Amino acid sequence: MSASLSRWLLLAIVSILPWQLAHATSDNGISVDLAKYANRATLPDFTAAACPDNPRALVQVKGNLYRHTTGPGLAVHSGFVLITREGALVIDPAMTCTAGWLRDEIQHRFSVKVKYVVYTHGHADHISGGQVFQQDGAIVVANQRALEPIVGEKIPTAVPNKVFDTDMKITLGGETVLLHRVAPSHSDSMTMVLFPKYKALQCTDVCESKSMPYNDFLDFYYPGWIETLDWVAKQDVDIIDVGHYSPATKADEAALRTYMVDLHKQVLDLVRSGQSWDQLYRNVKFSDEVKHWIAFDTMHTLNIVGMYRWVSNHRRGEW
What we know:
The chain has helices spanning 3-22, 96-110, 124-127, 130-134, 147-152, 222-233, 250-272, 277-283, 288-291, 296-313, and strands spanning 26-27, 30-31, 56-62, 65-70, 77-84, 87-91, 114-118, 139-143, 162-164, 167-172, 175-180, 192-195, 200-202, 239-241. The chain is of the alpha/beta class and 319 residues long. The chain has one domain (5-313): Ribonuclease Z/Hydroxyacylglutathione hydrolase-like (Metallo-beta-lactamase, Chain A, 4-Layer Sandwich). α6 (222-233) runs antiparallel to α7 (250-272) and α7 packs across α10 (296-313). The radius of gyration is 22 Å and the shape is globular.
C-alpha cells in the first residue's frame, strides 16, 4: 500500500469516527439475567386476541417525537415513540394485538427497527405486548421495582432486559432520553421519561389531562403522588403524555394537584369529625372545574373510596 493511500485511509477513519461516537447507542441500565425467568408461569394474555378493528395510530408530535395510540374512546392507551436513524424507542406497547402493527408501522414508515421499549410501570394494561418487540431484538427497560410485580403477578409480557434505581440515560441516534423515578405514586414502580430536546414528558397514569384519576386509586401512594406532581412542575416541558386521552400541560397537572390535595383534606377532615362512610361520601364537594373533567360521573365516587381507604390506613385516631 502506498504512503498516500495509507494517509487517505487514516483521514477517512478519523473523519468518520467522531460521527460514529456521537451517534452511538448506549445506556447505563443494569442488565437482568433473563435465564432466571425463562420458565416463569404467566397468566393468559388478555390483550392477545386478534383486534383488526381496534383503532390505532402513530402521529408526529414534534421533530423525531411521535405518539402511538391504541383503543377506542376512553379506553385509549398511549405513549411516546422516538424515531432515530439508529432505531426507535417505544413507551408502553399496551396491547399484544396492536404491538405487531406498531413494530411493522415503524419499520415501514421509517426503515428502522425498535431498539428500546420502556415500561412506565408494572401494570399489565400498559406493558402488554412488550414480548413482541423483545423477540425482535429490542431492549426492554423498566424501573427495578417493576420486576417483582411482572414476575410475581405472572404478567404475560417481556421481563425487562435492563432496570435502574433512580436514573437512567439512553442515547440513541444522537437523541437523549432520561428516565427518572420520583416516588411511589400510582405505583411503586413508576418511571418518568423526559425528552429534553422536545420539552416532552411521559407521565403515565400519575398525570392527567383534564381527566379523573382512575377508579379507586389502584396501587396508590398519596404523598408520593403529590411529590411527583411537584417534580413535574419543575420540569422544562410543554407537552405531557399521560398514557390515555389527549396530551396535557403543566397547568393541567397543577389543577390535578389542587384536586388531590383538596380531596385528601376533605376526606381526612370528615373522618376526623366522626363521619361513617355512608355519611362521608355524600359530603365531599367537587369544584365546577373538576365536574367537567373526563369520566367525572363514573370516577368521582370511586376516587373518594380510594382516598378514604388511604386516609383510614394512614391516620392515628382512637383504636
